[in-house]
Amino acid sequence: MDKVLSGMRPTGRLHIGHYFGALKNWIKLQEEYECYYFVADWHALTTNYEDPEDIIENRKQLVLDWLSVGIDPEKCTMFVQSHNIFHAELSLLLSMITPVSWLERCPTYKEIKQEQTNKDLSNLGFLSYPVIQTADIIMYGSKFVPVGEDQMAHIEISREIVRRFHHLYKCDVFTEPKGLLTEVPRLPGLDGRKMSKSYGNAITLSEDLNEVEKKLKRMKTDTNRQRLTDCGNPELCPVFDYHKVFSTEEERAEITEGCTTAGIGCMDCKMILKKHMFELLEPIQDRRKKFETEITDINEFLKPMQTKANAQSEAMMNKVRNALKI
Ligand code: TRP
Ligand code: SF4
Q1: Looking at the structure, do residues 127 and 166 belong to the same domain, yes or no?
Q2: Which ligand is nearest to the CA of 5?
Q3: In angstroms, what is the span from residue 208 Cα to ligand 2's centroid?
Q4: Residue 98 sits in the same domain as residue 132
């Protein structure tokens, strides 16, 4: 079976954007591939090196979020990056052969550095992020890496690093990974901007349902539709972006008809959305509660999977050290 690997940074509760943008696909992939899903906690440090104290709690919450949506320990291997020290060794060795210019050219590097002006991102770890990511990926011989558009450049760097390694050390220990581009539906935040925890415009998977309802009620609509008698345009409305993900085609046709002729109010429209959103979130939250009570120690829970990942890494590192003859 081909291997799939992907990771997420433990930066807080996952939201519905993560669900439709990644997790839904992860759940499907675990049926078809040998999947490795890991908590990328060192990666979180590349930009948040000043406050590591949240990481332990966030790691646990991330795994609980995964379990609650149906990532299944019977079907895949979940582990924590920093509990597998071999990732650091491989990353170090890869850094020897990675030209700095490849990293400086990387679009995410340039963008995040420009955007996050409140942080000092002149640290080496942030620049070498794609090298650490490459180590994560090629450690397990992963063939496919499900990622969003923004990560495709990193996978490209991974492929180049693999080719360079094979060329320099005349070996073929690694598998060249391919990015599996996940088609991400446009799911804006409640204010119409990109959904992000830092904007406070997200609906998390573990959000209290009363709170979800309040947020929906406050959600921005087509700004031209001030009164019930104004006709609206669903294509200009963030609520309708959600309907594209949550509702049926018939419902969308009805909403479009009603919105453009002022036949349906925005509140009615939002309540259709609420119904679907609750249908998604309720079972997720029930499962979360179950796991929250069942799992007292998250590291203990992950242990068998972590052990498997680490053993595979050790075997891989033996091959790598052999190739380098050190
Ligand atoms: N860079 C990814 C992100 O920020 C997280 C990540 C780290 C990752 N290592 C990875 C994703 C390896 C896929 C494969 O979302
Ligand atoms: Fe948006 Fe629905 Fe109101 Fe139209 S009726 S503006 S789609 S919330």
Answers
A1: yes
A2: 1
A3: 24
A4: yes
